[in-house]
Amino acid sequence: MLGHAFSQNRSTSLLSEYSNLLGDAILRHRAKIAEKSARVEAELANKLKSEFIANMSHELRTPLNTIIGFSRLIGEHEKRALTNESIAEYSGLIQEAAKHLLATINDILEISKIQAGKFTLDMHELHADEVLGSCLSFFKVAALDAKVTLIQDISHDLPVIKGDPVKLKQIIMNLLSNAIKFTPEAGRVTLRAVADRDGQVRISVRDTGVGMTQEDMLVAMLPFGQVDGGRSRMREGTGLGLPIAKALVELHGGSLSIKSVKGEGTEVTLLLPPADAHRASDQSILGDMARGSLQPGV
């Protein structure tokens, strides 16, 4: 009996020891994976930070050099005997450079406010087709210059939505600008809008451009991340367009998703809730406040 009890105690002790060793091994393995993951994230963050500094230097210096250079030429017009046509041309170049510089600074300030939770929308009930039609009209000339066909496929029975018209235009115009910029000559860019069965408005911008890989799409959605992030990249930009668009859509209670195939094109889809959904949400909040379960301003 004593031998049997000793054997059982010995077995229990061995099992307990084995269990502890196995638990320690699992914890060490998990710690090693977490450490590797943290190291990869840190390396990616450092890479994006370095690329951001290089790209921002380029984005800020290029228009500033244009402004300084051509304003100096205009200031010395008496020495150089510039024609009125040249002065008008240089003034136009200075204005375009200043607009580009202002847009870059605005993008940086906007994403900073969004990330800090200090961004507010001026919400109104509006017709999505009017917003989309305005955006299309704005890009007709740009599409012609790029030799890209701009296609409109907007349903006439879209539900009324609630949103900030200025920011909704910013989202669509940003997506159209990207689509045209990354689509080669003879390509197509399609703006489509339909009502989903659940009443949401589905807006998509599809192009036949260069497309992206899965890794490219992850980078493109990071603030300041750029798919072609090197100094020799073919197309300029701050890398803030898609992250700002996604954040603004989510502030409207919607969602943004991307589908893309390298060499075939990209489709960005927005889902925006109808005005009825916002009204129901507002009524629910007011009801909670009336019952005392939600304090104003919380």
Rg over CA atoms: 28 Å
Strand fraction: 5-15%
Mean pLDDT: 81
Assign an overall shape. Answer: extended
Q: Which sheet architecture does the biggest sheet show?
A: 5 strands, mixed
Number of helices: 8
- In the sheet with the most strands, the strands line up as 2-4-5-7-6
Low-confidence parts, pLDDT < 50 over ≥5 residues? 229-235, 282-291, 293-298
Structural class: alpha+beta
Termini gap: 69 Å
- Classify the helix fraction into a percent range: 55-70%
Number of strands: 7
* Multimeric organization: single chain
Order of helices and strands: HHHEHEEHEEHHEEH
Account of the 3D structure:
With 298 residues, this protein is of the alpha+beta class. The protein has eight helices and seven strands; from the N terminus they run H-H-H-E-H-E-E-H-E-E-H-H-E-E-H. The strands form two sheets. Strands 2-4-5-7-6 form a five-stranded mixed sheet. Strand 4 and strand 5 form a beta hairpin.
Concise summary:
The protein has helices at 2-75, 77-80, 84-115, 128-145, 165-181, 214-220, 241-251, 275-290, and strands spanning 124-126, 149-154, 161-163, 188-195, 201-207, 255-261, 265-272. The protein has 298 residues and is an alpha+beta fold. The strands form 2 sheets. The protein has a 5-stranded mixed sheet with strand order 2-4-5-7-6. A two-stranded antiparallel sheet has the order 1-3.
